[in-house]
Amino acid sequence: MTEDKIKHLTSNDDSQLFRSSVGEIKRIQSDKLTPSPLSSKSNKQVNIRQQHPVEHKITYEQTVEGNESVFFSREGVDGKTSKRIKRGDIQIADCLDLHGLTEKTAKNTINQFITLNHDHSNRYIMIVHGKGHGSNKKYPVLKNLTVNLLSSHPDVIAFTSAIQHDGGTGAVYVLLKK
In terms of Cα–Cα distance, which of 93, 89, 91, 69 is closest to 143? Predict the structure, then answer.
């Protein structure tokens, strides 16, 4: 062994002290987490609504790349509000993470999430869709679903890619109508 590796070896006394301090360990079967489609704050309420999903037609008018920034605003959103949402200078009421969901499940979950937050008068929400690096297709499926669904949803006034700290181009801030 090299001298560096010898310096980092521990004695038997150190190993025994460590094992007695840690105690008995239980090995886990898998280190993969199953993502929760909704934050714990909204989970109960959305499960109740799953029996009556809200449907509206989604038109795929645009395809966006994983690292591409997005912005959408309906007529009537003032410049000050647009700047605030683009800067991330908003109070996020709830967040939805779509990682690990299928396109069909994500569509239903997004619709329920928007309806729930609109019903609770939450104006600013965030949806984490990812950049599509794990997608089998040539484009980010969940990102494109999210962008096209939000732009055609009647309760959505505006949305934009999040700031880097909140997920960058893998997430969007959404402004819901009052």
Answer: 69
Q: Which tens digits make up the pLDDT trace of 118-139?
A: 999 999 999 999 998 877 777 8
> Euclidean distance between the first and final Cα of the chain, in Å?
69
Range of the domain at 166: 28-176
SS3 label, residue 3: helix
What is the spatial distance between Cα 44 and Cα 38, in angstroms, rounded to a whole number?
Answer: 10
Kindly list the distances between the CA atom of residue 92 and the CA atoms of 15, 55, 122, 174, in Å, as whole numbers in the listed order: 47, 25, 9, 9
User: Helices 141-152 and 103-119 sit at what angle, rounded to 10 degrees?
Assistant: 40
Distance CA 78, CA 175 (A): 12
pTM strictly above 0.70: no
Residue 3 inside a domain? The answer is: no
Residue 20 included in any domain: no
Domain presence at residue 13: no
